[in-house]
Specification:
CATH architecture of the largest domain: Up-down Bundle
CATH superfamily of the largest domain: GntR ligand-binding domain-like
Number of domains: 2
Order of helices and strands: HHEHHEEHHHHHH
CATH topology of the largest domain: Four Helix Bundle (Hemerythrin (Met), subunit A)
Radius of gyration: 19 Å
Structural class: mainly alpha
CATH class of the largest domain: Mainly Alpha
Low-confidence stretches: none
Helix content: over 70%
Largest sheet: 3 strands, antiparallel
Shape: elongated
Strand order of the largest sheet: 1-3-2
Strand content: under 5%
Mean pLDDT: 88
Number of helices: 10
Length: about 230
């Protein structure tokens, strides 16, 4: 790990308590897989490396457990949660529930500006996908879904979505990006763009259930194509 990033975080968030800074540091390293799944997290090592108390590290560990990024193994301390197909299915189910409700709420109140924003994101996603620029395409795909949740206007949905978002990111980072593009580009990536437009069209109808069905269909097809690659 690059421990200097911890001190960068401290300068960015000067009012944050130490336990939250340690949490943010570990969180980012776990989500981007710098700390691999299954890694044992040592209170002593992290405490010494970051020059903070063991109590501070323990409190940060509790926060990691609260969002499901770390688990306690009896007799072996805290470990970064492994990636597995069952968790991915749980993440997908939770994501569907949150995004479905969000798109229904958005459909009831969507403005022209909201729709234009989603269309612009999807247009950029399409352009990046056509050029096989995964590093650009994937964040745009993520932004499309996150924007739906944000435009719903429900702050509690946004908070819950933030919890599962880190798990979504871990699986996409874990996946071999070039394989995803090569094996599923024509089937999934390009199709995803069309499905995004179907979701937008559902929102335009002002019929919440129509938008929800389009979104659910999209998430189902995404899982069907990605799971065989990951596992």
């Amino acid at each position: 790990m690059n421990y200097s990033k911890f001190f960068e975080l401290a300068s960015i968030y000067p009012t944050d308590p130490l336990n939250k800074l340690v949490y943010k540091f570990l969180y980012s390293n776990i989500v981007d897989l710098t700390i691999p799944p299954g890694t044992n997290l040592s209170i002593s090592n992290i405490s010494k490396s970051l020059n903070v108390s063991r109590t501070t590290v323990k409190e940060a560990f509790n926060m990691l457990q609260a969002v499901g990024l770390a688990t306690v193994h009896a007799g072996h301390g805290l470990h970064v949660k492994e990636l597995d197909i069952f968790e991915l299915q749980d993440v997908r189910t939770s994501r569907e529930a949150l995004e479905t409700k969000a798109v229904q709420l958005l459909t009831e109140k969507a403005t022209k500006e909201d729709i234009n924003q989603l269309e612009q994101i999807n247009k950029s996603f399409d352009e990046a996908s056509q050029s096989l620029d995964f590093k650009k395409a994937q964040p745009l795909n993520k932004l499309f879904h996150k924007t739906i949740v944000e435009l719903s206007g429900n702050k509690f949905l946004m908070q819950m979505y933030a919890v599962i978002e880190c798990h979504i990111d871990r699986y996409f980072i874990y996946a071999p990006n070039d394989v995803i593009l090569t094996k599923t580009n024509n089937i999934y990536i390009n199709y995803a763009v069309k499905q995004h437009y179907s979701i937008i069209n559902g929102i335009k109808t002002c019929i919440p259930d129509m938008a929800a069905l389009a979104l659910q269909s999209h998430l189902n097809s995404a899982q069907a194509h990605i799971i065989p690659i990951l596992f």
